[in-house]
Amino acid sequence: MLFACDIGNSTIKLGLFNDDHLVSHASLSSNRNATADEYAIQIKGCFSMFGVLPENINGCIISSVVRPLNPVFAESIKKILKIEPIFVGPGLRTGLNIRTEIPSQLGADIVANAVASLRNEEPPIVIVAMGTATTLTVINQSAELTGVLICPGIALAQNALSSVAAELPGIALSQPVTLLGRNTIDAMVSGSVLGHAAMINGLIDRIADELSVQNMTIVITGNLSEWVIPYISNDKHKVINDKDLTLNGLRRIYKLSNKKR
Q1: Is 209 a catalytic site residue?
Q2: Opening angle at CA 48, ends 47 and 50, nearest 5
Q3: Is the dihedral of CA 101, 223, 198, 138 positive or negative?
Q4: The one catalytic residue among 6, 37, 109, 205
Q5: pLDDT by residue (tens digit) across 44-97?
Q6: N or C end of the chain: which has fewer CB within 10 A?
Q7: How far is CA 248 from CA 62, 152, 167, 193, in A?
Q8: Distant-in-sequence, close-in-space partners of 256: CB < 8 Å, separation ≥ 6
């Protein structure tokens, strides 16, 4: 069995694969102050929840955008599984044709998302990942990863608004009741969700113009995507929601790296 981990700024996604099938998944909060022992206890608890014995796991691959957690998480994995985890990074075989100025700066989660998307869909592809940041990754008609847009995430923007505007309360994200809010909370929800969707739709149109194409595949993933997906325009483009995109990309990269070795 393969254990895959995606370490993000807010959340750590865990997935367990039996061959090519994701059989179990869970999430933990990212905590840069947590020790290796604390993470080991949490991960072992997830295995218990999955009903899986650690000795049945023979591989581990990790993508991370939180470098201070890398050695901590690696130590946790070695404590539990007695194996050395593989980290997605420069030198690891991914099969991607990356056409950015500094490929090594590309986030490991973005790499995993691109690998999974190209495995399942025909380019051109735009991958929209909604987490702490909202990123749009562009794969052109030649299956080349040509660039990325990084925007403030919907929750980050909402929290920033509440923290600096004295009259605006903190709110939970939800589906907008109407376009025009008739009270403060409804107005904030509409502005956050519909505004974020309008930003994504506008950027998708600009990307289509940049690539000189009429139709693209839009692959959407991330913990916060459920609020925005209903408002992403699908009249011109094929829109896919894949919450397990990163984990599936990690599985694919692990297989490729094993072939190389």
Answers
A1: no
A2: 60
A3: positive
A4: 109
A5: 999 999 999 999 999 999 999 999 999 999 999 999 999 999 999 988 989 999
A6: C
A7: 12, 25, 43, 27
A8: 93, 94, 95
